[in-house]
Amino acid sequence: MRELFFLRLICFGMIVFFLPIRLEPAGTTTKTHIVKPKETAFSISQKYGMDWKILLEWNGKKETEGLQVGEKLKIPNQLHTAVREEKTSSETTSFHHGRFHSPLKVLPPVSLPYSNVSFYPNKGVLFKASRHKDVHPIHSGKVVVLDQMDGYRKYIILEHKGGYSSVYANLRSVSVKEGETVKPGDSLGELEEGKGLYFQINQGTKAVDPIPLLR
Question: Phi and psi for 9 in degrees, rounded to 5?
Answer without folding.
Answer: -80, -55
